[in-house]
Amino acid sequence: MQPSEESFDRRLDLPSAPPLRPRWRLRPQALLYLATAATTFAAGVAGWQPLVLGLDDQLAEQIGPHWQRGLVYMIAVMAVLSAHEAGHFIAARLHRIPATLPFFIPVPVLLTGTLGAVIGMEGSRASRRQLFDIAIAGPIAGLVVALPVLAAGMLFGTAAANSPFATPPVAQWMLRLLRPDIAAAGSIEPNALFMAGWVGLLVTGLNMIPVSQLDGGHVSFAIFGARANWIARAILLLSIAAIVVLGRYNWIAMVVIVALMGTDHPPIRDDGRPLGLARTMLGLFSLLIPIVTFMPEPLLID
């Protein structure tokens, strides 16, 4: 019989080895956050024009005179996206549902510099109320930051006869209220704060479409249960029809991504508790968000 290591160490009066400490390593989420900060900074410097980071010959020349614009846009748009994901993360922690830190999505070739962020969550462990709270917390937190940022961009922005960026209904209402000096057909010259708020509205509008595992899909499933799957299928079919009829082929990639995610919502834990009147009313109201924030054609370039 071989002596155990513990008895051997005690017999020789050897000190026990200290426990190994795990090496500190940079999380992928932190790397993606820094990468997104870099691409949004570049997008602001370039004036929200499509570019290839590191390959655009004029980018280095633009950093000198436009670095402040890039910095303001980067801080503002990252604040909007961070607020959105923090809403999800904090709500998940409060309900003790395991969730990851957000994964930001940098896109060097896109004029906004990012496609937003996503967060992983064990939704199968959430009840209807928990799923609703976690899903709705992100859009609300994001809009709480995006709308004031957009308003600041309108107040301090320069009036323009037209803009290459479409404005959703809620932005048009805000512009009429905050800038009565601008004609009905007028707009705001793109600036750092305006564009950060604009991106916030676009991301929120997309996320609140009641399909699959988007925020709107979670809210819809929490309200309607399995019937939400029929709503999601109908929206996907209508979206495909609209793309074909109206020629909005720029949304094909989005439809493909949603289809690959699966149109139907995965099952959740059923604790037998109803969603409740307050949550139901808030959820129904939140499903109007895509109508007032989404832009079928974000760019008005012919």
Mean pLDDT: 84
Shape summary? globular
Secondary-structure content class: mainly alpha
Number of helical stretches of at least 4 residues: 11
Beta-strand content estimate: under 5%
Low-confidence stretches: 1-24
- What is the terminal separation in angstroms? 84 Å
| SS elements, strand count | 4
What order do the helices and strands follow? HHHEEHEHEHHHHHH
- How many domains is the backbone divided into? 1
Described by strand count, sense and barrel closure, the largest sheet is: 2 strands, antiparallel
Strand arrangement, major sheet: 1-2
Helix content: 55-70%
Measured on Cα atoms, how large is the radius of gyration?
Answer: 24 Å
Quick structural overview:
By secondary structure, the protein is mainly alpha-helical. The protein is built from eleven helices and four strands.
Question: How would you describe this structure to a colleague?
Answer:
The protein has one domain. It has 11 helices and 4 strands, in the order αααββαβαβαααααα. The strands form 2 sheets. A two-stranded antiparallel sheet has the order 1-2. Strands 3-4 form a two-stranded antiparallel sheet. Strand 1 and strand 2 form a beta hairpin.
Notable traits:
mainly alpha, globular, disordered N terminus, two-stranded antiparallel sheet, 302 residues
Could you give the topology of this structure?
Elements: H1 5-11, H2 28-45, H3 59-94, E1 103-106, E2 114-118, H4 128-155, E3 159-160, H5 169-178, E4 187-188, H6 192-207, H7 215-224, H8 227-246, H9 252-261, H10 277-286, H11 289-293
Antiparallel strand pairs: 1-2, 3-4
Helix pairs in contact: 2-3, 3-4, 3-6, 4-5, 4-6, 4-7, 7-8, 7-10, 8-9
